[in-house]
Amino acid sequence: MQNEKIGLFDSGLGGLSILKALVEILPNEDYLFYEDSIHNPYGDKREEELFKITSSIVDYLLSKNCKIIVIACNTATTSCMKKLRKKYPDTIFVGTVPAIKVACDYDYKDVVVLSTPYTSKSKRVNELIDCFKKEEQNITIVSGSNLANLIEINDKEKIRSLLLDKLSKYQNSMDSIVLGCTHYSLIKEEFQQLFPNVALLDGCLGVSLEVKRQLENKKLLNLSQKKGTITIENSKSKDLITRSYEFLER
Ligand code: DGL
Protein backbone atom coordinates (compact mmCIF):
# COMPACT_ATOMS: atom_id res chain seq x y z
CA MET A 1 0.00 0.00 0.00
CA GLN A 2 2.89 2.43 0.77
CA ASN A 3 3.94 2.30 -2.87
CA GLU A 4 0.47 3.09 -4.22
CA LYS A 5 -0.43 6.47 -5.67
CA ILE A 6 -1.85 9.60 -4.11
CA GLY A 7 -5.11 10.30 -6.00
CA LEU A 8 -6.39 13.84 -6.55
CA PHE A 9 -9.33 15.30 -8.40
CA ASP A 10 -10.84 18.65 -9.32
CA SER A 11 -13.31 20.03 -11.84
CA GLY A 12 -10.37 20.67 -14.14
CA LEU A 13 -6.95 22.27 -13.93
CA GLY A 14 -7.40 24.03 -10.56
CA GLY A 15 -6.09 21.07 -8.57
CA LEU A 16 -2.69 21.57 -10.21
CA SER A 17 -2.05 24.27 -7.61
CA ILE A 18 -2.33 21.61 -4.91
CA LEU A 19 -0.46 18.96 -6.90
CA LYS A 20 2.46 21.37 -7.33
CA ALA A 21 2.65 22.05 -3.59
CA LEU A 22 2.39 18.31 -2.84
CA VAL A 23 5.21 17.37 -5.19
CA GLU A 24 7.41 19.93 -3.46
CA ILE A 25 6.99 18.38 -0.03
CA LEU A 26 6.50 14.75 -1.09
CA PRO A 27 8.63 14.39 -4.25
CA ASN A 28 9.03 10.62 -4.03
CA GLU A 29 5.33 9.82 -4.13
CA ASP A 30 3.47 8.76 -7.30
CA TYR A 31 0.46 10.89 -8.21
CA LEU A 32 -2.69 10.35 -10.25
CA PHE A 33 -4.58 13.61 -10.86
CA TYR A 34 -8.03 13.32 -12.45
CA GLU A 35 -9.15 16.61 -14.03
CA ASP A 36 -12.89 16.54 -14.58
CA SER A 37 -12.97 19.37 -17.12
CA ILE A 38 -16.03 17.97 -18.87
CA HIS A 39 -18.11 18.87 -15.80
CA ASN A 40 -16.50 22.27 -15.22
CA PRO A 41 -17.71 24.41 -13.55
CA TYR A 42 -18.75 22.54 -10.40
CA GLY A 43 -19.53 25.86 -8.74
CA ASP A 44 -22.94 26.34 -10.33
CA LYS A 45 -24.16 22.77 -9.77
CA ARG A 46 -26.38 21.36 -7.03
CA GLU A 47 -25.20 19.10 -4.25
CA GLU A 48 -26.96 15.95 -5.54
CA GLU A 49 -25.34 16.26 -8.95
CA LEU A 50 -21.93 16.97 -7.42
CA PHE A 51 -22.25 13.94 -5.16
CA LYS A 52 -22.98 11.70 -8.16
CA ILE A 53 -20.05 13.12 -10.14
CA THR A 54 -17.57 13.01 -7.26
CA SER A 55 -18.61 9.47 -6.21
CA SER A 56 -17.85 8.15 -9.67
CA ILE A 57 -14.42 9.83 -9.63
CA VAL A 58 -13.70 8.34 -6.21
CA ASP A 59 -14.72 4.89 -7.55
CA TYR A 60 -12.30 5.39 -10.41
CA LEU A 61 -9.37 6.49 -8.21
CA LEU A 62 -10.00 3.57 -5.85
CA SER A 63 -10.04 1.19 -8.83
CA LYS A 64 -6.50 2.48 -9.49
CA ASN A 65 -5.59 1.57 -5.89
CA CYS A 66 -4.97 5.14 -4.67
CA LYS A 67 -3.95 5.03 -1.00
CA ILE A 68 -5.42 8.47 -0.19
CA ILE A 69 -7.76 10.80 -2.06
CA VAL A 70 -7.18 14.53 -2.11
CA ILE A 71 -10.25 16.56 -3.03
CA ALA A 72 -8.32 19.37 -4.70
CA CYS A 73 -11.47 21.45 -5.01
CA ASN A 74 -13.17 23.72 -2.49
CA THR A 75 -16.57 23.26 -4.11
CA ALA A 76 -16.45 19.46 -4.03
CA THR A 77 -15.16 19.55 -0.46
CA THR A 78 -17.78 21.94 0.92
CA SER A 79 -20.58 20.11 -0.90
CA CYS A 80 -19.64 16.42 -0.68
CA MET A 81 -16.74 15.61 1.64
CA LYS A 82 -18.92 14.56 4.59
CA LYS A 83 -21.11 12.34 2.40
CA LEU A 84 -18.09 10.82 0.65
CA ARG A 85 -16.50 9.96 4.00
CA LYS A 86 -19.73 8.19 4.96
CA LYS A 87 -19.99 6.33 1.66
CA TYR A 88 -16.31 5.26 1.70
CA PRO A 89 -15.51 4.74 5.38
CA ASP A 90 -12.20 2.94 4.71
CA THR A 91 -10.82 5.65 2.44
CA ILE A 92 -8.59 8.48 3.66
CA PHE A 93 -9.83 11.80 2.28
CA VAL A 94 -8.13 15.16 2.57
CA GLY A 95 -10.25 18.10 1.45
CA THR A 96 -9.66 21.75 0.55
CA VAL A 97 -11.47 24.68 2.13
CA PRO A 98 -10.91 28.43 1.70
CA ALA A 99 -7.90 29.54 3.80
CA ILE A 100 -10.00 31.64 6.18
CA LYS A 101 -8.11 30.25 9.19
CA VAL A 102 -4.82 31.41 7.67
CA ALA A 103 -6.19 34.95 7.13
CA CYS A 104 -7.44 35.07 10.70
CA ASP A 105 -4.27 33.59 12.24
CA TYR A 106 -2.14 36.18 10.42
CA ASP A 107 -4.40 38.98 11.70
CA TYR A 108 -5.37 40.42 8.35
CA LYS A 109 -7.88 43.15 9.03
CA ASP A 110 -9.93 43.33 5.85
CA VAL A 111 -10.26 40.00 4.11
CA VAL A 112 -12.12 39.21 0.88
CA VAL A 113 -12.96 35.53 0.38
CA LEU A 114 -13.37 34.92 -3.35
CA SER A 115 -14.86 31.54 -4.22
CA THR A 116 -17.26 29.78 -6.58
CA PRO A 117 -21.01 30.50 -6.38
CA TYR A 118 -21.51 27.19 -4.52
CA THR A 119 -18.71 27.69 -1.99
CA SER A 120 -19.58 31.32 -1.31
CA LYS A 121 -23.10 30.28 -0.26
CA SER A 122 -21.99 27.17 1.63
CA LYS A 123 -22.54 26.56 5.32
CA ARG A 124 -18.90 25.50 5.66
CA VAL A 125 -17.56 28.97 4.79
CA ASN A 126 -19.75 30.59 7.42
CA GLU A 127 -18.69 27.96 9.96
CA LEU A 128 -15.03 28.78 9.26
CA ILE A 129 -15.67 32.51 9.73
CA ASP A 130 -17.59 31.89 12.97
CA CYS A 131 -14.81 29.67 14.23
CA PHE A 132 -11.73 31.79 13.42
CA LYS A 133 -12.67 35.45 12.91
CA LYS A 134 -11.56 37.84 15.62
CA GLU A 135 -13.72 40.78 16.55
CA GLU A 136 -11.53 43.40 14.91
CA GLN A 137 -11.42 41.51 11.60
CA ASN A 138 -13.73 42.17 8.69
CA ILE A 139 -14.44 39.33 6.25
CA THR A 140 -16.44 39.77 3.03
CA ILE A 141 -17.52 36.79 0.93
CA VAL A 142 -17.55 37.45 -2.83
CA SER A 143 -18.73 35.02 -5.51
CA GLY A 144 -16.27 34.68 -8.37
CA SER A 145 -19.16 33.76 -10.74
CA ASN A 146 -17.73 31.97 -13.80
CA LEU A 147 -14.08 32.79 -13.07
CA ALA A 148 -13.08 29.10 -12.70
CA ASN A 149 -14.43 28.42 -16.17
CA LEU A 150 -12.62 31.43 -17.68
CA ILE A 151 -9.39 30.11 -16.16
CA GLU A 152 -10.12 26.66 -17.56
CA ILE A 153 -10.50 28.09 -21.08
CA ASN A 154 -7.62 30.55 -20.47
CA ASP A 155 -9.51 33.70 -21.53
CA LYS A 156 -7.08 36.28 -20.12
CA GLU A 157 -9.06 39.36 -21.15
CA LYS A 158 -12.31 38.21 -19.55
CA ILE A 159 -10.40 37.07 -16.46
CA ARG A 160 -8.98 40.58 -15.94
CA SER A 161 -12.29 42.32 -16.45
CA LEU A 162 -14.09 39.93 -14.09
CA LEU A 163 -11.44 40.48 -11.40
CA LEU A 164 -11.80 44.24 -11.75
CA ASP A 165 -15.57 43.99 -11.71
CA LYS A 166 -15.64 41.83 -8.58
CA LEU A 167 -12.80 43.35 -6.55
CA SER A 168 -12.20 47.01 -7.50
CA LYS A 169 -14.69 48.23 -4.95
CA TYR A 170 -12.62 46.71 -2.15
CA GLN A 171 -9.31 47.98 -3.53
CA ASN A 172 -8.84 50.73 -0.95
CA SER A 173 -9.75 48.66 2.06
CA MET A 174 -8.81 44.99 1.58
CA ASP A 175 -5.41 43.79 2.78
CA SER A 176 -5.85 40.16 1.70
CA ILE A 177 -7.76 37.93 -0.69
CA VAL A 178 -8.48 34.30 0.16
CA LEU A 179 -8.34 32.37 -3.11
CA GLY A 180 -11.23 30.07 -2.23
CA CYS A 181 -11.15 28.03 -5.42
CA THR A 182 -8.12 26.05 -6.53
CA HIS A 183 -8.40 27.43 -10.07
CA TYR A 184 -7.79 30.95 -8.74
CA SER A 185 -4.32 29.99 -7.48
CA LEU A 186 -3.32 29.35 -11.10
CA ILE A 187 -3.70 33.09 -11.88
CA LYS A 188 -1.87 34.64 -8.94
CA GLU A 189 0.10 36.84 -11.38
CA GLU A 190 -3.10 38.45 -12.68
CA PHE A 191 -4.29 39.13 -9.12
CA GLN A 192 -0.89 40.62 -8.25
CA GLN A 193 -0.83 42.88 -11.30
CA LEU A 194 -4.26 44.30 -10.56
CA PHE A 195 -4.00 44.42 -6.75
CA PRO A 196 -0.28 44.66 -6.02
CA ASN A 197 -0.41 45.44 -2.31
CA VAL A 198 -2.82 42.74 -1.30
CA ALA A 199 -1.77 39.39 0.22
CA LEU A 200 -3.00 36.30 -1.63
CA LEU A 201 -3.84 33.35 0.60
CA ASP A 202 -4.66 29.81 -0.42
CA GLY A 203 -4.81 26.37 1.12
CA CYS A 204 -2.25 24.61 -1.08
CA LEU A 205 0.51 24.29 1.50
CA GLY A 206 -1.96 23.47 4.29
CA VAL A 207 -3.56 20.67 2.28
CA SER A 208 -0.15 19.24 1.35
CA LEU A 209 1.02 19.21 4.96
CA GLU A 210 -2.20 17.50 5.98
CA VAL A 211 -1.66 14.79 3.33
CA LYS A 212 1.86 14.25 4.67
CA ARG A 213 0.58 14.07 8.24
CA GLN A 214 -2.12 11.52 7.32
CA LEU A 215 0.33 9.32 5.42
CA GLU A 216 2.84 9.48 8.27
CA ASN A 217 0.20 8.56 10.85
CA LYS A 218 -1.03 5.61 8.80
CA LYS A 219 2.55 4.53 7.94
CA LEU A 220 1.74 4.98 4.27
CA LEU A 221 4.56 7.28 3.18
CA ASN A 222 6.44 6.01 0.16
CA LEU A 223 9.97 5.41 1.42
CA SER A 224 11.53 5.19 -2.02
CA GLN A 225 14.56 7.44 -2.64
CA LYS A 226 13.57 7.87 -6.30
CA LYS A 227 11.56 10.80 -7.65
CA GLY A 228 7.93 9.71 -8.12
CA THR A 229 5.73 9.83 -11.23
CA ILE A 230 2.86 12.19 -12.11
CA THR A 231 -0.02 10.91 -14.20
CA ILE A 232 -2.68 13.38 -15.32
CA GLU A 233 -5.98 12.37 -16.88
CA ASN A 234 -8.63 14.74 -18.21
CA SER A 235 -12.28 13.91 -18.89
CA LYS A 236 -12.49 16.45 -21.72
CA SER A 237 -9.37 16.80 -23.84
CA LYS A 238 -5.76 15.81 -24.36
CA ASP A 239 -4.78 19.47 -24.91
CA LEU A 240 -5.68 20.23 -21.32
CA ILE A 241 -3.33 17.46 -20.18
CA THR A 242 -0.51 19.02 -22.22
CA ARG A 243 -1.27 22.44 -20.67
CA SER A 244 -1.24 20.86 -17.23
CA TYR A 245 2.22 19.31 -17.60
CA GLU A 246 3.49 22.66 -18.94
CA PHE A 247 2.15 24.39 -15.84
CA LEU A 248 3.90 21.90 -13.57
CA GLU A 249 7.21 22.51 -15.30
CA ARG A 250 7.04 26.31 -14.82
N1 DGL B 1 -11.49 24.32 -8.52
C1 DGL B 1 -12.73 24.24 -7.87
C2 DGL B 1 -12.77 24.80 -6.47
O1 DGL B 1 -11.77 24.84 -5.80
C3 DGL B 1 -14.02 24.33 -8.62
C4 DGL B 1 -14.21 25.29 -9.71
C5 DGL B 1 -15.51 25.04 -10.43
O2 DGL B 1 -15.55 24.09 -11.18
O3 DGL B 1 -16.47 25.79 -10.22
O4 DGL B 1 -13.82 25.16 -5.99
Q: What would you say about this model in short?
A:
With 250 residues, the chain is an alpha/beta fold.
Bound molecules: D-glutamic acid
Q: What best-fitting shape do the alpha-carbon axes yield?
A: globular
What is the SS-derived class? alpha/beta
Based on DSSP secondary structure assignment, what is the total number of beta strands?
9
Placed side by side, the strands forming the largest sheet appear as 4-3-1-2-9
First-last Cα distance: 31 Å
- The average pLDDT value, as a whole number, equals 97
Q: What is the rounded Rg?
A: 17 Å
Name the beta content range.
Answer: 15-25%
Main sheet makeup: 5 strands, parallel
Q: Oligomeric form of this entry?
A: single chain
Order of helices and strands: EHEHEHEHEHHEHHEHEHEH
The DSSP helix count reads 11
Q: List low-pLDDT spans.
A: none
Helix content: 40-55%
Structure description:
The protein is built from eleven helices and nine strands. The protein is of the alpha/beta class and 250 residues long. The chain has a five-stranded parallel β-sheet, with helices on both faces. A four-stranded parallel β-sheet has the order 6-5-7-8. Strand 1, helix 1 and strand 2 (31-35) form a beta-alpha-beta unit. Helix 1 (16-25) packs across helix 10 (204-217) and helix 2 crosses helix 3 (74-87). The longest helix has 17 residues, at 47-63. The two termini are 31 Å apart. The mean pLDDT is 97. It binds D-glutamic acid. D-glutamic acid binds at residues 10-11, 14, 40-43, 73-75, 116, 119, 148, 181-183. The site of D-glutamic acid has 16 residues, from helix 3.
